[in-house]
Amino acid sequence: MNLSEPHALYITLTLPTVFAAILIFEGLNQVLSHKTIGWVSAFFGFAFLVTVWLTYFALSG
Fold first, then answer.
1. Whether the Cβ atoms of residue 49 and residue 17 lie closer than 8 Å to each other
2. With contact defined as beta carbons under 8 Å apart, do 14 and 43 qualify?
3. pTM score
4. How far lies 32's CA from each of 24, 26, 29, 36, 43, in Å?
5. Which terminus has fewer CB within 10 Å in the chain: N or C?
């Protein structure tokens, strides 16, 4: 897959990043509502975000 094409960039970077951001913010919302399970969601969101970015740079480099 050629990562210089716009649709490839959208599929490999933008959509997963938005999903990770939703997980992170949902986790923070739960933490602010005094639900300790929110840390789990925020952690998995952050881990997913790091995985997306590392995969993108591994494929583009």
1. yes
2. no
3. 0.79
4. 12, 10, 5, 9, 15
5. C
